[in-house]
Design goal:
The chain folds into two domains: 3-120 and 357-362, Enolase-like, N-terminal domain (Enolase-like, domain 1); 125-355, Enolase-like C-terminal domain (TIM Barrel). Helix content is 40%, strand content 18%. The chain contains 13 helices and 14 strands. It has helices at 57-72, 80-91, 99-118, 123-126, 147-159, 172-185, 200-207, 228-236, 250-259, 269-272, 274-288, 301-313, 356-362, and strands at 3-14, 23-24, 27-28, 31-41, 46-51, 134-141, 165-167, 190-193, 217-219, 241-243, 264-265, 291-292, 319-323, 341-343. The strands form three sheets. Strands 6, 7, 8, 9, 10, 11, 12, 13 and 14 form a nine-stranded mixed sheet that branches. Strands 1-4-5 form a three-stranded antiparallel sheet, with helices on both faces. Strands 2-3 form a two-stranded antiparallel ribbon. The mean pLDDT is 96.
């Protein structure tokens, strides 16, 4: 089965009106773009993947279509390992991380989707079989920088069936408001993602008052994110640490896992190289007995692929669901948890197909 075409499709979902405008990745947000990678074959099978999109999708789409796609035409679609080796070498001169690898990540996910469809089996079975048929999802809130809004949004998420919550806040008042909301309701876990704002001394000072909150983890507390020794200092000070969404090469992940510097590692399937490389990281973390908490702030195949990986390979899986209400999704309502859980898709490949008419309606590039 040969690849006949590789292309990128970008669609935009609007935040539904009614609440305060949040921030995400440091910017005010009213919409989210998703960058799909579409792989077509001469057998009539089509695979869908997702490349990391936030703020950088024009560069990723350009690299996909001008540098990567031409090298895929005529390649065997089901020999994923061989094709990805060739492509990683082809693009290494423009960077082994960042936009080129984001594009390859989306391609790899789409190829696994094709492989699953060709074998009429879900991806989780190709990865060894699921240990469960549904996975707990935690509500990953956007940034509000307002304790009242944080508390209100936490309450709303808990009302919708989530048990655990992550906030993207650096202020002690906002973090405490979330902790108090959980304590009042169900005693669920609280995670805090601060997006690498501090030096090690700053991080130690900022996290010391949070020890009594018994966070499940604080995410990316130090800059730069690859300062694993600095992250370890925070961990041994009494606040568990998670990092990984910005650890962008397999070599760095090996160094992170082997060092056991942090409590949780967080590979991001749409950034690190797709399912193939994420699978290796999951297995390495399991062998080292380092906990996994993959990054999956996505709404399409990136989130679906993470569900397959987690179902098959994570000993204690938790799925990150970016908590916001969006306009209609081409991938339907699968990404809306039921009683705090996301079902593991059972169809072939990813197991969730896009609505092509709705995709075209929302398409922006």
């Amino acid at each position: 089965m040969k690849i006949t075409r590789v292309s990128g499709v970008v669609y935009r979902q609007q935040l539904k009106p009614g609440g305060a405008q949040p921030k995400f990745a440091g910017e005010g947000r009213s919409a989210f773009e998703t960058l799909l990678v579409k792989v077509e074959t001469d057998a009539g099978l089509t695979g869908w993947g997702e490349a990391f999109p936030h703020r950088i999708w024009p560069a990723v789409k350009s690299l996909l279509e001008t540098l990567i796609a031409p090298a895929c035409i005529g390649a065997e679609a089901t020999d994923i390992a061989s094709l990805m080796r060739t492509l990683i070498y082809r693009v290494h001169g423009v960077g082994r991380a960042g936009p080129a690898m984001y594009a390859l990540s989306g391609l790899d996910i789409a190829l696994w989707d094709v492989l699953g469809k060709a074998r009429d089996t879900p991806i989780y079975r190709l990865l060894g079989g699921a240990q469960r048929d549904k996975i707990p999802a935690y509500a990953s809130l956007l940034k509000y920088a307002d304790p009242e809004i944080v508390a209100r949004t936490c309450e709303e998420a808990l009302d919708r069936g989530y048990r655990d919550i992550k906030v993207h806040e650096t202020g002690r008042a906002e973090i405490t408001a979330a902790a108090q909301a959980l304590q009042r309701r169900n005693g669920g876990a609280l995670m805090v993602d601060v997006n690498a704002p501090w030096t090690v001394p700053e991080a130690l000072a900022a996290t010391a008052p949070l020890r009594d909150l018994q966070l499940k983890w604080i995410e990316e507390p130090v800059w730069p994110p690859e300062d694993f020794a600095g992250a370890h200092e925070i961990s041994v000070s009494g606040v568990p640490v998670a990092i990984g969404e910005n650890v962008l090469t397999p070599t760095d992940f090996k160094r992170l896992i082997d060092s056991r510097a942090v409590d949780y590692v967080q590979p991001s399937v749409a950034k690190i190289g797709g399912i193939s490389i994420a699978r290796d990281i999951f297995l390495a973390a399991n062998a080292a007995k380092v906990a996994l908490a993959p990054h999956s702030a996505y709404f399409g195949p990136g989130l679906i692929a993470t569900a397959h990986l987690s179902a098959a390979l994570a000993p204690a899986p938790m799925l990150e669901r970016l908590y916001c209400d969006l306009s209609d999704s081409p991938f339907g309502t699968w990404y809306e948890p039921v009683d705090g859980f996301l079902a593991v898709p059972q169809g072939p490949g990813l197991g969730v197909e896009p609505d092509l008419a709705l995709l075209e309606k929302l398409r922006v590039a």
